Amino acid sequence: MHYSKEELQNLDKVKRLNIINSVSGVKPANLIGTISSDGATNLAIFSSVVHLGSNPGLLGMILRPAQDVRRHTYENIMETGYYTINHVQRSFAENAHFTSVKFEKDESEFEKCGLTEAFLFDFPAPFVAESQVKIGLKFLEEISIPVNGTSMLIGEILHIEIFDNAINDLGYIDLSLMDHVGVSGLNTYYSLSKVDSFPYARRSNLPDFTKKDR
Amino acid sequence: MHYSKEELQNLDKVKRLNIINSVSGVKPANLIGTISSDGATNLAIFSSVVHLGSNPGLLGMILRPAQDVRRHTYENIMETGYYTINHVQRSFAENAHFTSVKFEKDESEFEKCGLTEAFLFDFPAPFVAESQVKIGLKFLEEISIPVNGTSMLIGEILHIEIFDNAINDLGYIDLSLMDHVGVSGLNTYYSLSKVDSFPYARRSNLPDFTKKDR
Question: DSSP character for A53?
Answer without folding.
Answer: E
